[in-house]
Amino acid sequence: MSDSPENTLISFASAERVGVDEIELDVRTTIDGELIILHDHTVRRTAGTYTPFLDLPIERLTLEQVRSIDLGAGQKIPTFAETLDETSVLLQVEVKAPGAARPLARFLRDRPARDRDRCLITSFDTLSLADFRDEWTGGARGLALHIPDVTENWRDHADRIELSTVFIQLTQLTTALADELHEAGRRVAASLMEGPGDVRRIVELDVDATASNSPAYARHLLESNDEFIARFPSFADMDLVKA
Fold first, then answer.
1. Is the separation of the CB atoms in 210 and 202 below 8 Å?
2. Mean pLDDT (whole number) for 192-216
3. Quick one: which of 131, 165, 173 has its CA closest to 148?
4. What percent of the chain has pLDDT above 70?
5. Which pLDDT value is given to residue 240?
6. Residues 6+ apart with CB under 8 A from 237
């Protein structure tokens, strides 16, 4: 959520209040093996106040040190376990550090099915996804690869890792590529949705999922698009916007 410190429990709660059905978050590990939620390698950008750990890689800090960091609005860096306990919607769990892939797989393997099956594991790194899959092949929602450049050789990786979903920038997605992925049995996610033109593009391409940093505004955009409402007339009564 753009109005709360990112990757915090308060931002996730705010997103659920708006009515999202899916939240994207980023997972790393501390030096003592705790799975925590943080996008960047350090807290230089996201810390709300000064900390002596400002420029230290999060993987070199203990959980106790991580907990001392103030993100603003009374928020600390949450653990993945806390995040699962405090959320109820579907989750896109992005592996930000390769070393987090196997611990994440082992952690989810031991969680209740209701938690395991609402997590889609994503990464820009094919090796991280392969490590996760090598450690544990469960999970109803599968694995997803972020593709920053569609001209690169990603198709072989998609087949090898048995991806369920492919994330592509909306500006790079074409009808032909969307059709190719659908014919291969994969879901297509395209983002970000930031304005009315993006909604029209999403409808034209028949994508399966999109994302927004402002869920309330995204819902407004979708509800204002006649073609989208014609295809999904029950949308106004459902929680369908992703954050």
1. yes
2. 91
3. 173
4. 95
5. 37
6. none
DSSP annotation string for 148-173: S-TTSS-HHHHHHHT-SEEEEETTT-
End-to-end Cα, the chain, rounded Å: 7
Instruction: List pLDDT tens digits, range 53-84.
Output: 999 999 999 999 999 999 999 999 999 999 99
Residue type at position 152? E
Q: How far apart are CA 220 and CA 223, in angstroms?
A: 5
User: Which tokens belong to 81?
Assistant: 């376990």
Which residues lie below 8 Å from residue 14, measured CB to CB, with a gap of 6+?
A: 1, 3, 4
Predicted pLDDT at 237:
58
In this predicted model, what pLDDT tens digit does every residue of 142-170 receive, in sequence order?
999 999 999 999 999 999 999 999 999 99
Sequence letter at residue 169: Q
24's tokens:
């994207």
Q: Is 203 helix (H, G, I), strand (E, B) or coil?
A: helix
DSSP annotation string for 43-58: STTT-SS--TTTTS-G
Angle at 94 between CA 109 and CA 25, to 5 degrees: 100
Residue with tokens 């014609």: 230
